[in-house]
Amino acid sequence: MEHKQILSLHKVSKRYGPIQALKSVSFNVPEGSVFGVLGPNGSGKTTLLGIIMDVLKPNAGTYKWFGLEPHADLRKRIGTLLETPNFYHYYSAVRNLQINAAIKGRGHDDIERVLKITELWERKDSKFSTFSLGMKQRLAIANALLGRPEVLLLDEPTNGLDPAGIAEIRELIRNLGQEGTTVIMASHLLDEVEKVCTHVAILKKGDLVAAGHVDEVLANEDMLEVSAANL
Ligand code: ATP
């Protein structure tokens, strides 16, 4: 089946002085996929996210969102959780989302929707400070889902969580994918990508080692060695 491409990278390169952080990287993110960008520290994941969010300029290459040249309006179609949002500890979950929705200039109408998706609806009136680590991260994802983005961008979404929180976030990401939200997530954890993602691009020192369906890419023993040895 032909899938619409949510994101396409074509020979994207980025240099910081003498450091070649990305070397002619090309891959496609199909609609409806949970797409892992997998690589050890320093492999270029953050640089890649910075480029596709238009925070960094590539030295060469191009990328397209939804088949379109990058432009400011596309930003509304992309939800991001690249750094932890500032939530008020003594305000409830719903109050925090109302504040952020107002800051983003987005309506309140889908606050109920995002709290239900992240299974926080029952706790919507509880103070943020009473939340577990996993619940705090689920609220951050709820916040990123405000405005019904077509794609959600996550940077190491389980970093710093306890085992219960890690399990909650992995399940939430899988569910988002099953419900049709495309997710792009950077991770340095091979087992996380295996458990959560449908597709993967493996980066090693700025080179794209492989990209495609998780089953196919990680079934390739050589590839698994490359990633396992470096993750
Ligand atoms: P991490 O998970 O540690 O952030 P990463 O896979 O996201 O790693 P990048 O942060 O993109 O990798 O870094 C890729 C390479 O570029 C590394 O060698 C890093 O030291 C270098 N680098 C990143 N940002 C800069 C910068 N602003 N100036 C100089 N070098 C940089």
Report on this model:
The chain is α/β, with parallel strands linked by helices and 231 residues long. The strands form two sheets. It has a six-stranded mixed β-sheet with strand order 5-6-7-3-8-9, sandwiched between helices. Strands 2-1-4 form a three-stranded antiparallel β-sheet, with helices on one face. It is globular. The mean pLDDT is 90. The structure holds adenosine-5'-triphosphate (ATP).
Topology as a string of helices (H) and strands (E): EEEHEEHHHEHEHEEHH
Distance between the termini: 32 Å
Count of individual beta strands: 9
Helix content: 25-40%
Percent strand equals 25-35%
Question: Segments where pLDDT lies below 50 for 5+ residues?
Answer: none
Domain ABC transporter: 7-230
GO molecular function: ATP binding
Family: Belongs to the ABC transporter superfamily.
Keywords: ATP-binding, Nucleotide-binding, Transport
Characteristics of this structure?
globular, alpha/beta, binds adenosine-5'-triphosphate, 8 helices, 9 strands, 6-stranded mixed beta sheet, 231 residues
Question: Could you write a compact summary of the structure shown?
Answer:
This protein has about 230 residues and is of the alpha/beta class. It has 8 helices and 9 strands.
Mind sketching the topology for me?
Blueprint: E1 5-16, E2 19-30, E3 34-38, H1 45-52, E4 60-65, E5 78-81, H2 93-103, H3 111-117, H4 133-144, E6 151-155, H5 163-178, E7 182-187, H6 190-196, E8 199-204, E9 207-213, H7 214-219, H8 221-230
Parallel strand pairs: 3-7, 3-8, 5-6, 6-7
Antiparallel strand pairs: 1-2, 1-4, 8-9
The chain binds adenosine-5'-triphosphate (ATP).
Adenosine-5'-triphosphate binds at residues 16, 19, 21, 39, 41-47.
Family: Belongs to the ABC transporter superfamily.
GO molecular function: ATP binding
Domain ABC transporter: 7-230
